[in-house]
Amino acid sequence: MIRVRVTAAVVSTVVLACAGAAYADDVIEINEPLIAQSATPIADYLRAGTIGLAADPQDTRPVAIEYSEAHETRAKIHKWASWATLPVMGTEYWLGQKLYDDPNSLTSSSRGVHGAVGAALIGLFAAQSITGVWNLFDENSAPGKTKRWVHGLMMLGAEGGFVAAAAMAPGHSRNDLINFDAQRSTHRDVALVSMGVGTAGYLLMLLTGGSH
If you count Cβ atoms within 10 Å of the first and of the last residue's Cβ in the chain, which end, N or C, has fewer? Predict the structure, then answer.
């Protein structure tokens, strides 16, 4: 009886030892660090993508625009002509109103002065139109494009109005003498509208920071 118990104890010890050895052989060592799983993986992914986009210097860096020397020269001519436009326009308005109120305006010596100042005004608008339209296409990709186009169209419309007013001026032929009063009123109305549009276009750029 005692021999049976000893034998059973030996067998049990051997079995346990073999099982322990087998278990030890099945253990796999993991050298990688443990990574905690996020509770919000989608939000973390989107946040990482947003940070990457914000850190991209190409998206935040302003684009530099370089212009040629000819562009800068045209811009200076345009600016100088614009500064001279308002005084000349005011002088033309004063001379025109003086002639309009003069009953002898048809033979007045002020007609020649009024015509010369009007020609100078049209010349200033022509200089602004050439330089402005040229530079308008050069600055097509720069900020403020819509404002520049509105300004340009207004100034071109005013220039066309001044040319039309000059063509409508009475007294160019004998037939004008018949409808002199009606023609001088039309001439004055077209000129005043053109002055208003031109002044509005001028103030648009002056009061809003120029072409930017």
Answer: N
- The whole-model pTM stands at 0.65
Q: What counts of helices (H) and strands (E) characterise the chain?
A: 7, 0
SS3 at position 182:
helix
Q: Which residues of the chain have pLDDT under 50?
A: 1-11, 14-28, 30, 34, 50-60
Contacting residues for 120 by C-beta, under 8 A, at least 6 apart: 88
Q: CA 199, 212, 67: angle at the middle one, nearest 5? A: 115
- Count how many Cα atoms sit within 13 Å of the Cα of residue 67 in the half-sphere of its side chain: 16
Alpha carbons 78 and 210: distance in angstroms, whole number: 12
**Per-residue pLDDT at 16:** 46
First to last CA, the chain: 110
Structure letter (DSSP) for residue 127: H
Q: Give dist(CA 139, CA 66) in Å, integer.
A: 10
Query: Exposed, middle or buried by CB within 10 Å (0-12, 13-18, 19+), for 8?
Result: exposed
